[in-house]
Amino acid sequence: MAELIDGKKISMDVKMAVKEEVSSLKERGVSACLAVVIVGNDPASRVYVNNKKKACELVGIESREYALAEETTEEELLGLVQKLNADPAVNGILVQLPLPKQIDEHKVIERIAPMKDVDAFHAANVGKIMIGDYDFLPCTPAGCMELLHSTGIDVCGKNAVVIGRSNIVGKPMAMLLLHENATVTICHSRTKNLKEICRNADILVAAVGRAKFVTEDMVKEGAVVIDVGMNRLENGKLCGDVDFDAVAPRCSYITPVPGGVGPMTIATLMKNTLTAAKIQNHTAE
Ligand code: GUN
């Protein structure tokens, strides 16, 4: 049976380290502030935003929420982003995705000042991640890497398979694994022989967005499985992209849902906001 990777505990360790640094920054007269923008009434987004605000409170980062109506226009949102870019008291800007359909997400992301882009979604930050010279790590992939590191396994030379090619998770995840010298394969909905490719993975990262997509026959004996999925079942329960009960007995390590990757995403966001505050106040080493 696999050992569980405890994202709740590991994320708490990260947040406590951030808290300590935030507090020593404060002693030097520097505070950190995250602006969180949410548009519309998506219930999942509301939960995520509340969790991000709670984490800010815990670590001593000021959070400012901007909750805009579902019918907000693109112009209005771009105007708010512009205002937050220009506000020296705001160090990080997070626009919760998805946005209502009248708003072009790409345009909004590109409007965020790269130095305040704590999600690392702006093309300038994505490019920096690609070349391995970045200020901000993408939150979910960085959280997954930290979970991998916690197992003590050496990523170097391992076969890593990422299922999913989103800009938020799949693509940057592959890049971070590559930076640590894994041999990386990205799979997606058009991939042929998905099962065979996955069965060859020493490290399998599932970021598909479909409940229980990864089944027992897709997992190599002894693999490390990282489940990025957060699917809401009809009974209201959260479920990952991995069929946990069937897959866990085959793995060496596996992340649970909830309590795996989710809390790590938020912990990395706290780290990034701290980094943003340090850079903007010229206190970064
Ligand atoms: N929606 C789902 N995940 C994320 C995330 O990491 N950042 C933002 N801004 N929106 C999201």
Structural account:
By secondary structure, the protein is of the alpha/beta class. The chain folds into 2 domains: 29-114, Rossmann fold, CATH 3.40.50; 139-262, NAD(P)-binding Rossmann-like Domain (Rossmann fold). The protein is 42% helix and 15% strand. The protein is built from 10 helices and 11 strands. The protein has helices spanning 7-27, 43-59, 74-86, 105-111, 123-131, 139-150, 170-179, 194-199, 244-247, 261-280; strands spanning 3-4, 33-39, 62-68, 92-95, 159-163, 183-187, 203-206, 224-227, 231-232, 238-239, 253-254. The strands form 3 sheets. It has a 6-stranded parallel β-sheet with strand order 1-11-8-7-5-6. Strand 2 (33-39), helix 2 (43-59) and strand 3 (62-68) form a beta-alpha-beta unit. The longest helix is centred in the N-terminal third of the chain and has 21 residues, at 7-27. The termini are far apart. Bound molecules: guanine (GUN).
